[in-house]
């Protein structure tokens, strides 16, 4: 198998059969048949394969993946799932993503922002993007929300997050006016359903804020 160039490929689908969608996303990112992919979930705490972090392998080689969902806007409707796959990954690569809707974040009693962040965040869209970045960074770290989200300080203007004494480049992509996707992948380029971010950064209302760094 020829290893593709290093890039994070994000596929956005209607929520449903997550495992099948993950298999298809990994196969598409690597230009192979889905039969060559193994994927599933595993909980690092209880060992269950019914929930927990997603994983995938191709020919026995681990592939960095991450998955996020947001529920349907209306009762009985379908939610949205985003799946990130690092194509051409090196051993040290890791990825975390989050998908959030403005109305859900605005209604949540979040106590996750530092005073510096609160001074920067202009409105509910900014707060939603910043919360999504925090979750993406913590998913990439591997511990998720077992870590206090306030430990991740987000700077949307610079498209970075400060965590564990390091600055992490991130990507912020608005799928719709009320739905934001955040990707933390160490500065790798990100393609969302084929559209590659420019890497120029920007404010979240620009539509896409690319990886900085």
Write structural notes for this entry.
- With 213 residues, this protein is α+β, with helices and mostly antiparallel strands.
- The protein has one domain: 4'-phosphopantetheinyl transferase domain (Ribosomal Protein L22, Chain A).
- The strands form 3 sheets. Strands 7, 8, 9, 10, 11 and 14 form a 6-stranded antiparallel beta sheet that branches. It has a 5-stranded mixed beta sheet with strand order 5-6-1-12-13, with helices on one face.
- The protein is globular, with a radius of gyration of 16 Å.
- The two termini are 30 Å apart.
- About 5% of the residues have low confidence.
What is the helix content? 10-25%
The CATH homologous superfamily is named 4'-phosphopantetheinyl transferase domain
How large is the radius of gyration?
A: 16 Å
CATH class: Alpha Beta
Provide a compact summary of the structure.
This protein is α+β, with helices and mostly antiparallel strands and 213 residues long. The protein has a single domain, classed as Ribosomal Protein L22, Chain A (Alpha-Beta Complex), CATH 3.90.470. It is built from four helices and 14 strands.
Question: Which key terms come to mind for this protein?
Answer:
Ribosomal Protein L22, Chain A; 213 residues; alpha+beta; 6-stranded antiparallel sheet
Q: How is the secondary structure organized here?
A:
Blueprint: E1 7-14, H1 18-30, E2 37-42, E3 53-58, E4 61-62, E5 65-70, E6 80-87, E7 96-101, H2 102-107, H3 115-120, H4 124-141, E8 153-155, E9 160-163, E10 166-176, E11 179-184, E12 190-192, E13 195-196, E14 208-209
Parallel strand pairs: 1-12
Antiparallel strand pairs: 1-6, 2-3, 3-4, 5-6, 7-11, 8-9, 9-10, 10-11, 10-14, 12-13
């Amino acid at each position: 198998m020829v290893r593709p160039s290093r890039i994070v490929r994000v596929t956005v689908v209607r929520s449903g059969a997550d495992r099948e969608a993950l298999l298809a996303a990994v196969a598409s990112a690597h230009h192979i048949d889905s039969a060559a992919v193994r994927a599933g979930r595993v909980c690092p705490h209880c060992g269950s394969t019914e929930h927990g972090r997603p994983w995938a392998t191709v020919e026995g080689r681990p592939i960095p993946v991450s998955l996020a969902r947001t529920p349907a806007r209306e009762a009985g409707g379908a939610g949205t799932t985003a799946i990130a796959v690092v194509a051409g990954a090196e051993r040290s690569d890791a990825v975390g993503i989050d998908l959030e809707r403005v109305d859900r974040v605005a209604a949540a009693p979040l106590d996750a922002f530092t005073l510096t962040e609160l001074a920067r965040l202009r409105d509910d869209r900014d707060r939603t993007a910043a919360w999504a970045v925090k979750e993406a960074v913590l998913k990439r770290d591997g511990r998720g929300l077992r870590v206090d989200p306030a430990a991740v300080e987000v700077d949307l203007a610079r498209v970075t997050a400060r965590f564990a004494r390091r600055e992490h480049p991130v990507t912020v992509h608005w799928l719709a006016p009320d739905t934001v996707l955040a990707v933390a992948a160490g500065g790798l380029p990100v393609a969302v359903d084929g559209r590659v971010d420019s890497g120029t950064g920007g404010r979240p209302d620009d539509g896409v804020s690319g990886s900085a760094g």
